[in-house]
Amino acid sequence: MRALTCVFALMIGAAPAWADEVAPVVVDAGHGGVDLGARGVNGALEKDLTLAVARRLAAELRARRIPVVETRTKDVFIPLVERTAIANKAHARLYVSIHANSAPEPEVSGTETYFLSVDASDAEAMRVALTENDVYQQEGTASDSHDVVGSILGDLIRTEHLRESSDLAATLQRGLAKLPAQSRGVKQAPFVVLTGVNMPAALVEIGFVTNAAEVKRLGQRDAQTAIAKALAAALVEAMGQTRAAIPASGEEP
Ligand SMILES: [Zn+2]
Predict the structure, then answer these.
(1) Which residues are close to ligand 1, an ion, with C-beta < 5 A?
(2) pLDDT tens sequence across 191-212
(3) What is the mean pLDDT of residues 30-38?
(4) Which pLDDT tens digit goes with each residue over 43-54?
(5) Residue (of 57, 81, 69) closest to 235 by Cα position
(6) Ligand 1 centroid vs 235 CA: distance in angstroms?
(7) Does pLDDT of 228 surpass 90?
């Protein structure tokens, strides 16, 4: 099945025979509305870049007959916990959250993919998670970052998909590594938007808006499409890998 899966993944635009049978993939466009996300050096906003790539990714998946649920399709604010609630309500097969990165150093660039962990891979991964969790504090659902990590710990203990999430992150990052951008690898950190989901989940950082060349490229239609196609192929591959675990229709995942 794995060899077949690879063939499917290479057939861009082709729908796997099993595509219609599976639960949906949730595509989460990071930020939105009053939550701008990171601000690019050219004025571009993370919330716009994530929506553009997420919408293209959803289209690429639907072209492969894979059902998709989008957490947002326009510039609206959606609380982090509502995003995970949407995924759980949909009994989604996989959950991918699309984000763009930022760093104090303007030369830093590239893609990276995260899965949930209480302990961050390193200080840089923790900084990214705290930045992405920032809106959670603004939602008034936690009083300080300690509460955020504490609530994540509680959810993490109930999470049964860490291994699959790690595999999903690796597959997604392998796809991104084929793009003309540096691959910064798979990392782990305590992201609120990944907590409490009842399915394998990963968060993709498609590039740095603080790097002038990269943010310019991320704003271009061709680059957005290339990212979407890479992620769609990777998701098809990931779904094939876990096909044996796909629940029957109507069954709890
Ligand atoms: Zn973000």
Answers:
(1) 30, 37, 99, 132
(2) 888 888 889 999 999 999 999 9
(3) 96
(4) 999 999 999 999
(5) 57
(6) 20
(7) yes
215 Cα to the center of ligand 1, angstroms? 14
Please tell me what DSSP assigns to residue 105: S
Other residues' Cβ atoms within 10 Å of the Cβ of residue 1: 9
Strand partners, 38: none
Given pLDDT bands bounded at 50, 70 and 90, which one contains residue 249? very low
Residue 56 C-alpha to ligand 1 middle, in angstroms? 18
| Cα 78 to ligand 1 centre (Å) | 13
- How distant, in Å, are the alpha carbons of 29, 92, 117, 143, 196 from that of 159? 22, 15, 10, 24, 7
Distance 236 CA to ligand 1 centre (A): 24
Q: At what angle do helices 221-241 and 2-10 cross, to 10 degrees?
A: 160
| pTM, to two decimals | 0.84
**Burial class of residue 57 in the structure, from the number of CB atoms within 10 Å of its CB (0-12 exposed, 13-18 middle, 19+ buried):** buried
Q: pLDDT > 70: what percent of the chain?
A: 78
